[in-house]
Amino acid sequence: MWSGRFREPLNRKFELWQRSFPFDWRLIPQEIRASKAHAKMIAAAGILTETELAEILAGLDRIGADFAADTLDLASETPEDVHHFVELELTKHIGTLALKLHTGRSRNEQIATDLRLFVRDSIDQVLTDLAAWADALLDQAVKAGDAVMPGYTHLQRAEPVLLAHWLQAYVQMILRDASRFADARKRMNLCPLGSGAIAGATLALDRNIAAEALGFDAPTANSMDATSDRDFALEFSQCAAGLGLHLSRFAEEITLYATQEFGFIELPEAFSTGSSAMPQKKNPDLTELVRGKSGRLLGAATTFATIIKGLPLAYNKDMQETQEATFEVAATLSGMLPLMAPFTTALQFRLDRMETAASTGYLNAMAAATYLVHKGVPFRKAHEKIGNAVRYALDKGCELNELTLDELKQFGDEFGVDFHEAITLQATVDCHDVIGGTATAQVAASLALAREKIAALTPQQEQVHV
User: Fold this and answer.
1) Which among 275, 334, 374, 465 is annotated as catalytic?
2) Which of 17, 71, 75, 412 has the highest CB neighbour number within 10 Å of its CB?
3) 382: cis peptide before it, omega within 30°?
4) Cα–Cα distance between 25 and 128 in angstroms, integer?
5) Rounded to the nearest 10 degrees, how much is the dihedral formed by the CA atoms of 123, 124, 125, 127?
6) Strand, helix or coil at 273?
7) Would you call 165 a catalytic residue per the annotation?
8) CB 233 within 8 A of CB 119
């Protein structure tokens, strides 16, 4: 594609080593879409006749159909990169007319466009998969009803919460993740075609034609930035790393709660494996792999930042290395996320174990202190009085609600006959009756609101005309 300037052939090992086609073949669908948009743009500039344009578009469609049917020869050593491959395939179909397609464009703008399209497609799939996972969490929350579990701080039992409240905590994380992906998508949705190699196309191209055809909001504003910008891929990896952290936290809790020590969850057999040595084992392979793969996402984000940080304007060959990291992020997410909804749906919660755990260990101490506050006791003093009562109950080997009124009155005359009713499991949950709290009514209201937000997650597809 560029050998006219050179007298000597490339070193064979170097030539093979520097090729990107072994990995950028994944961009064939995007390269075809971008090439069709470019063809329309140069046709409007008078470079192609209507007949030539139709022939090129038909040839590109044939390549796309062959790729979808998995009949393309991707093992060939001939192409240097995906752009070269599509050009060679197009030449097979329509002859030397295919060479006209490269008029007015550079590989620098081609790869910038292809990667944007790939990242945009990947984000759309991520948003769809996140919505499905969030719906599965909300379905489990509805199914859980008013079931209670212990909430933890410092991995120590703290206060009872509704199981539905715990499930919705992850829905909130998903909503934040989705907003970051959607925001990154909006920011990157500009079309580099027409930017040339660095300074812009040398033909009078209407760049809006390509932008509209590919569903971009507008053309990019600066050719040097457009051809060397990989911020969109960096943001994609950073959003993915943040999502990976949340996936890993969920996976860690499920792994813990499925142990015999907790016994809160029965793992679905369809997503678990056994042991080759110990017949009794059921291992949480899905959650362990999710926890591990979050590290790959973090690593990709670091790779991006390290590659980009020292590059002068404009395009540099180093940027080729960002492609594999982009594909790694997309592949990791496309492997994990579609499994999260069916896995979550298949989880079985042992509500009896959860309720027992939430009913013991003085998890109603905060509600007890709140009871005293309502009796006019300053919170610091109420905290101290309940702390003394807990220590007394510990020594006696019983729970707070098992202390008699006479025993309680040694810690303050404020304790009355209504105390025990105020620290039942239901009352302990419902005393958190604020927006975002675990009270039954609040959780029901937040669930309905979350449904509305999740319904808006799936992206509205742009009108694409290629």
Assistant:
1) 275
2) 412
3) no
4) 25
5) 80
6) strand
7) no
8) yes
Q: What is the pLDDT of residue 464?
A: 56
Half-sphere exposure of residue 35, counting CA atoms within 13 Å on the CB side? 31
State the Cα–Cα distance between residues 146 and 407, nearest whole angstrom: 32
- Is residue 343 within 8 Å of 286, Cβ to Cβ? yes
| Distance from C-alpha of 401 to C-alpha of 353, rounded to nearest angstrom | 19
| 10-19, 130-139, 168-177, 201-210: least confidently modelled range | 10-19
Query: Side chain identity at 144, as an amino acid letter?
Result: A
- Residues contacting residue 257 through CB under 8 Å, at least 6 positions apart: 263, 264, 265
β-bridge mates for residue 190, sequence order:
218
A 10 A CB-CB count for 42 gives: 26
Q: What is the dihedral of CA 325, 330, 332, 337, to 10 degrees?
A: 160
430-461 pLDDT per residue, tens: 999 999 999 999 999 999 999 999 999 876 65
Please state, in angstroms and as integers, the Cα–Cα distance from residue 405 to each residue in 54, 400, 402, 408, following that order. 90, 11, 9, 5
* Cα end-to-end distance, the chain, whole Å: 25
What is the length of the chain? 466
Q: Which tens digit of pLDDT belongs to each residue from 109-129?
A: 999 999 999 999 999 999 999
* pLDDT tens sequence across 322-380: 999 999 999 999 999 999 999 999 999 999 999 999 999 999 999 999 999 999 999 99
